[in-house]
Design goal:
By secondary structure, the protein is of the alpha/beta class. It folds into two domains: 1-211 and 414-437, Aldehyde Dehydrogenase, Chain A, domain 1; 216-396, Aldehyde Dehydrogenase, Chain A, domain 2. It is built from 13 helices and 18 strands. Strands 10-11-12-9-8-14-15 form a seven-stranded mixed β-sheet, sandwiched between helices. Strands 5-4-3-6-7-17 form a six-stranded mixed β-sheet, sandwiched between helices. Strand 3, helix 5 and strand 4 (128-132) form a beta-alpha-beta unit. Helix 2 (21-37) crosses helix 6 (138-150). It is globular and about 75 Å long. The termini are far apart. This is Succinate-semialdehyde dehydrogenase. Belongs to the aldehyde dehydrogenase family. It catalyses: succinate semialdehyde + NAD(+) + H2O = succinate + NADH + 2 H(+).
């Protein structure tokens, strides 16, 4: 079925790429409008699939639709160049053309937005796509397919191949090795990304990858502590800590450490409510599966065994096996698992540091670099730290940084390429040089 989908995409590619950019734009815009008209139903699908609170799911659908709106507009702005030649009888032209069939492999934590961020750019560029959604969340991808049909996106341009967890490696290998696929776009773990890169190397495919993160959140003595606590709450506990850019470790300077921990604990206990995603007062839904819960438990057990203190939370919630209490740990060190690996759960470990140089050394010791955050009111420090943090995205006095206009992506082992923004469409375009001679 994956191979059939690739052939369908390849067969539809020539006609779609030849459509005037304005016509592709009109269809993408209509797809966006249909998402907005059906936003409540789409949000309910997201909550039913992955458990996130309905309010967050509604926010995801608005974010998801915004990529179709953005790239509908960018479709008409794929500009080439005329470069001055060194001889009078030549002209140098640069054309930008679609790469061809793009295979899109997406995660379960943002089952709608991670599709449109990739597919919007691909279709705007004139590519066709095969989407393999996460095995936990196929319905969002299929719902988007239904709306794409209604929007007039031709058959074969947007294809969905849901599959079981058992079949996922085989389907991924097919998409990465099929010679008709020109481009792979993947969001997921660094470990899986490395496997896909190996598969894609055999046919030298274009690849963009948004992989794992390990985001530091640094609070300097000069910070507004109350604002830092608000940002920490949003950055850490959105989607129950199951986002690739959510904070994984908090580094708090000695002078305000105790104050920050105390206020953060009170905010967690006051603001966060565990429950069903369909309950209006819920801010923390279940984790995606029991394996995710076990990882959080393992990290807490490891930290406590090495001297960390549980300030609040620390165990499974009484609601059921996949629900976990929002947890705050203090007295954490860099030797603990929770500061060495991505958690993907509602666990906030706090480390105390003394100097700016020490905080940067701890933050930059990771092999990945997706997002990073810090709070400071010192202008010179803001410039220094923003430039020296080894991440692709920096939030300065902000805990939520994702936006359709902004380039999303990481450095080191957090991936390759950028999504969203004016740069996102470049991932689906080839540059062709044309030399006109004999003039």
């Amino acid at each position: 079925e994956a191979r059939e989908a690739v052939r369908a995409a390849h067969g539809a590619g020539a006609a779609w790429s030849r459509l005037p950019a304005k016509e592709r734009s009109v269809r993408l815009r209509r797809w966006y409008e249909l998402m907005m008209e059906n936003k409540e139903e789409l949000a309910r699908i997201v909550t039913a699939e992955n458990g996130k609170p309905l309010k967050e799911a509604q926010g995801e659908i608005l974010y998801s639709a915004s990529f179709l709106e953005w790239f509908a507009e960018e479709a008409r702005r794929v500009y080439g160049d005329v470069i001055p030649a060194s001889s009078t009888d030549r002209r140098i032209l640069v054309l930008k053309q679609p790469v061809g069939v793009a295979a899109v492999i997406t995660p379960w934590n943002f089952p709608s937005a991670m599709i449109t961020r990739k597919v919007g750019a691909a279709l705007a560029a004139g590519c066709t796509v095969v989407v393999k959604p996460a095995e936990d969340t196929p319905l969002s991808a299929l719902a988007l397919g239904e709306l794409a049909n209604q929007a007039g996106i031709p058959a074969g341009v947007y294809n969905v191949v849901p599959c079981s967890r058992q079949q996922a490696p085989a389907v991924g290998e097919v998409l990465c090795t099929d010679p008709l696929v020109a481009k792979i776009s993947f969001t997921g773990s660094t470990a899986t990304g490395k496997i896909l890169l190996k598969h894609a190397a055999g046919t030298v495919k274009r690849v963009s990858m948004e992989l794992g993160g390990h985001a530091p959140f640094i609070v300097f003595d000069s910070a507004d502590v109350d604002r830092a606590v608000t940002g920490a709450l949003a950055s850490k506990y959105r989607n129950s800590g199951q986002t690739c850019v959510c904070t994984n470790r908090f580094l708090v300077q000695k002078g305000i450490h105790d104050q920050f921990v105390e206020k953060f604990a009170k905010a967690i206990e006051r603001e966060l409510h565990v429950g069903s995603g369909f309950d209006a007062k819920t801010t923390q839904g279940p984790l995606i599966n029991e394996k995710a819960v076990e990882k959080v438990e393992r990290q807490i057990e490891d930290a406590v065994s090495q001297g960390a203190c549980v300030v609040t939370g620390g165990k499974r919630h009484s609601l059921g096996k996949n629900f976990f209490e929002p947890t705050l740990l203090s007295n954490v060190t860099t030797k603990m698992l929770c500061t060495q690996e991505e958690t993907f759960g509602p666990l906030a470990p706090v480390l105390k540091f003394e100097t700016e140089a020490e905080a940067l050394a701890i933050a930059n010791a990771a092999s990945v670099g997706l997002a990073g955050y810090f709070y400071s009111r010192d202008p010179a420090q803001i410039w220094r730290v923003a430039e020296q943090l080894e991440v692709g995205m920096v939030g300065v006095n902000e805990g939520i940084i994702s936006a359709v206009e902004s380039p999303f992506g990481g450095v080191k082992q957090s991936g390759l390429g950028r999504e969203g923004s004016k740069y996102g469409i470049d991932e689906y375009l080839e540059i062709k040089y044309v030399c006109l001679g004999g003039l």
